[in-house]
C-alpha cells in the first residue's frame, strides 16, 4: 500500500513511467486517480443492474410441484398415447 502512496507520475518522462512502475500500479493509478468519477458511476450502475435482476427473478408465489401417485398407479395403459414404431425396410 505504501508503494501506491509513493507512486509519482511525471507525464513528461515516459521512460520512467513504463520502466520503473509495474503494470498494476499504472492500472490502479488510471482507475482510481484519473478516472475515479467514471469508476464510481460504473460501479453504481452495475449495482443497480444486479439489484434489478434479483428483484425481477424473485417469484411472488411459490408453485409446488408434486406427484399424484394415486392417479399414476390407477392409469390405464390403453388410454394413453399411442406408441408408433417405424418400419425399417
Question: How does the SSE layout of this entry go?
Answer:
Blueprint: H1 2-5, H2 14-20, H3 23-34, H4 36-57, H5 69-74
Structural commentary:
- This protein has one domain.
- The termini are far apart.
- By secondary structure, the chain is an all-alpha fold.
- The mean pLDDT is 76.
- Helices cover 57% and strands 0% of the residues.
Share in helix: 55-70%
Q: Helical region count?
A: 5
Stretches where pLDDT is under 50 for at least 5 consecutive residues are none
Q: Tell me, rounded to a whole number, the average pLDDT.
A: 76
Number-wise, the strands total 0
β-strand amount? under 5%
Judged by helices, strands and strand pairing, the structural class is mainly alpha
Shape: elongated
Number of domains: 1
Q: What is the CA-based Rg, rounded?
A: 32 Å
Span between termini: 78 Å
Order of helical and strand elements: HHHHH
What's the story with the biggest beta sheet?
none
Concise description?
The chain has helices at 2-5, 14-20, 23-34, 36-57, 69-74. It is an all-alpha fold and 89 residues long.
Index terms:
89 residues; single chain; 57% helix; mainly alpha
Amino acid at each position: 500500500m505504501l508503494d501506491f502512496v509513493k507512486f509519482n507520475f511525471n507525464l513528461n518522462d515516459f521512460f520512467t513511467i513504463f520502466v520503473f512502475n509495474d503494470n498494476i500500479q499504472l492500472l490502479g493509478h488510471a482507475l482510481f486517480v484519473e478516472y475515479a468519477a467514471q469508476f464510481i458511476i460504473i460501479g453504481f450502475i452495475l449495482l443497480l443492474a444486479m439489484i434489478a435482476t434479483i428483484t425481477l427473478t424473485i417469484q411472488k408465489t411459490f408453485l409446488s410441484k408434486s406427484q399424484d401417485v394415486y392417479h399414476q398407479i390407477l392409469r390405464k395403459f390403453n388410454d394413453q398415447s399411442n406408441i408408433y414404431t417405424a418400419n425399417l425396410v
